[in-house]
Amino acid sequence: MTVTATSTPPPAAPKVSGGKGGRTRLSFPVVLLIIAGVLLALSAVRAITGAQDVTSAGQISAALAMAVPIGLAGLGGLWSERAGVVNIGLEGMMILGTFFGAWAGWQTNPWLGVLAGVIGGMLGGLLHAVATVTFGVDHIISGIAINILALGFTTYFAKLWFNSGDAAAKGGSPKQSPPADEITSVTIPGLSDWLHSIEKHHWFFVSDLAGIIGGLVTNLSLLTIVAAVLFVVTFFVLWKTAFGLRLRSCGENPVAAESLGVNVYTYKYIAVIVSGGMAGLGGAFLSLVTSHIYNEGQTGGRGYIGLAAMIFGNWRPGGLAMGAGLFGFADALQLRNGGESVHALLLLLVVVLAGIAAWKLYRKSFLQGVVSALIAAAVLVWYLGTDTVPTEFVSATPYVVTLLVLSLSAQRLRMPKADGMRYRKGQGK
């Protein structure tokens, strides 16, 4: 069966990075003001509703743990899509990371498990690259196929490897692996206790800030630090080196890149394999840090949420990190006093929607403004008429947040121009 795909457009003037004529970027002071505004809003919600867990150190620590695998999956998507290859297969590559990470982790040590998880994800990335780059298979079809193959592969070999012999004796079963040793966590001595003492006073903004910082410096896994470093390294490599410029040119206009001597196939292969490795690392984080075991269905759609975080971040590491943090915060609500906290955040949602409605009406977008105002009114009625939210809604919070964020940010997005388009060597001649 022949799979058709959109061909790369003819050469045009390359435009890899923004300039005066491009989209306005947020300056560092503006980003700090936005962060301060979010903290003030959360502090006000906490003070008004009495939901102390919204900004507690425990909530922030859990949110960070949930954000790391989402962020790593999104980082993998960023590498791939900056080279022009859509990677829907991130979920499958994460599944491979969870399986191989746990398989090697319980037999040897967790750091070798991390390496095995990365290699497992890279194998998934290599398969995706062969299908899309070499054979020109539609990127979406290839990604979905990898997700299905990864799920079937891990289900079969979990029954084969974890349900007999030494593995079964140590707690393995057809759907989970034996537990692996814990990766070292660090806490800054003195600072964590001091911040916790300030948090307990429940002072407006000050205690909230102490709780947030405390959650970032208490029981911090070394693998979380590695993930943060990877964000910095990705930004430096892709935006500050000649290699990164060539790779991004493959996602903007591969025909023009080829005319300048860039081996487009090589760069696409590198990007997609690195993408799989990042997703595999996110999967290994789930099985070796979050739970210490492999569980069937462990990823829970985080590969897709990571892709959403990347889109929310406009295909840039900084925005991706903020998106992963937001989704991780929503995901962490399931692990703690979710009903009360989600109910409190409904009030914040009312304020955000009201602000959007006012802005749209000011810009004369009357339909969008009225719709936002009506939704804000409905959410306000919901908040005032209830004391908590159902458990089912709490479980769906990360996915609801994903839909809301993507719908609100859709108008400012700018994807790489040749993202998802099939490229054949020499087609510009």
Task: Report on this structure.
It is a single chain. With 429 residues, this protein is an all-alpha fold. Helix content is 69%, strand content 1%. The protein has 17 helices and 2 strands. Helix 2 packs across helix 13 (302-312) and helix 13 (302-312) runs parallel beside helix 17. The radius of gyration is 23 Å and the shape is globular. 46% of the residues are buried. Mean pLDDT is 87; it is low at 1-6 and 10-23.
Radius of gyration: 23 Å
Largest beta sheet, briefly? 2 strands, antiparallel
CA-CA gap between termini: 28 Å
Query: Can you tell me the residue ranges where pLDDT is under 50 for at least 5 consecutive residues?
Result: 1-6, 10-23
Would you report the number of β strands? 2
Binned, the helix content reads: 55-70%
Please state the structural category: mainly alpha
Q: What fraction of residues sit in β-strands?
A: under 5%
> What count of helical segments does DSSP give?
17
